[in-house]
């Protein structure tokens, strides 16, 4: 235990040492600037160059340049060096401020968080080596661009070390609105993707859609499915949701999307929900087998006595399914009507002719085919409004169809897609409720299909997939990104416990008649308590990767990266085009007004 006298002595030495460093930090550069500036002034006025004596130049300039006038010495050895030193200090301050702003304004690293060696598998050298082993097309390449090695998540806090998730990782990002989920994660990932890209969103103008539209059009074809006219774009494609419904399994999956879009996970197991979903799957199967448009299902739902679906199922030897459908149709009228009405509600969006046009054959438009898409460098934008009912069901069904087509292609290609496919499921809990998405997470990464599901909160995922489903997705995700705005105290505490504790040195002081004594002890303390997680500043995020310590990241928004001006211009142009189309649609047409005599 140090004595009080020693403690005071040490404090005095520490202050004196810091004061000495501060003085040297000013005097040394100032004396050298005085010597250099004085010599330049002497040379300019026709006098000799003085020997290297910076201290004399600062304190006694007249000794080095006796022939120079007082005015020359005042300017050359006093005013100019002081001005130059102040200017250098100002430049250094500006550069430091910019660097600090770029890293989210966090000046102090958090003790106990991951260091570069703790997350080495996510750093440049390891992630590049991993990319060579995962992608046959890169094995013989002499140089591999960083974007081909993995998806940039950000920089390790306070450093220039880039942190990337590899092309076998699957991720969940939980980030509140305006915390960087689009600007720092979705948009940079889409811009750097080497293969096909799928994006789901509930926004268009000023979002990932407009920011990436032109850039992705330069590398492949752009497909936009916008049944609720979020981007107000002219329909230039159609997709057949019944293409994968020619089996009972496929028809059941399609019906499941309509169910999930209409009711929460807690309600999907009740009698009416299950019965309505079963009727939909049976009718989807019949329509698919007979190559009918999906809208025919609405006609059959309107008239349960129509025997057409029964005949189709029997003709294609689905006799058991036909028997089930017949049993429902001929059952008690009250039960039958309740089941059919439930199914009608689930598929009600198909009654909207503008929505139905996107999923029924159009002879003058190309058909979007997932099997071709996964072998391209195309981009698919799937747009739907929050709570879009059946419209969001079609978005989820299309996304699911693409991922299943990618899985089939990966199996044919030896196990993995090369280049990999990126699936950014932004606002997944609102517009892309794929019921078994947590189960898909267990194998998508190994197929070269990289999903990033973006949620606003953990509870939002629980509402869609239930507690068990969301826990399964969380556990299966090899990378988890947590942004600012976490207001759920239970989830914040869970994260705090996952980050862990560290040793903290505690100093205690006691006073008595004989003097003051100081003791030092160690105690365990949370690295990041729940309140600190809630208060994460914008521009930062926590990263949890399988088998590694939690890391604090400085996010990298696209607008601070090279080429941002060009992207901003393209985004503004696309946003203005959306506004112009919206205004044009809202403008009254000539036929809206009657003629006057």
Automatic annotation (TrEMBL):
Source taxon at top rank: Bacteria
SUPFAM superfamilies named among the record's database cross-references: P-loop containing nucleoside triphosphate hydrolases
Cell membrane found in the keyword field: yes
Classification via InterPro entries: P-loop_NTPase (IPR027417), T4SS-coupling_protein (IPR051539), TraG-D_C (IPR032689)
Compartmental location: Cell membrane
Domain TraD/TraG TraM recognition site: start-end pairs: 420-538
Membrane topology reported for the UniProt record: Multi-pass membrane protein
Transmembrane parts of this sequence: 15-35, 73-96
Residue stretches of biased makeup (Low complexity): 506-521
Matching PANTHER family: CONJUGATIVE TRANSFER: DNA TRANSPORT (PTHR37937)
Protein name, entry field: TraM recognition domain-containing protein
Organism: Streptomyces zingiberis
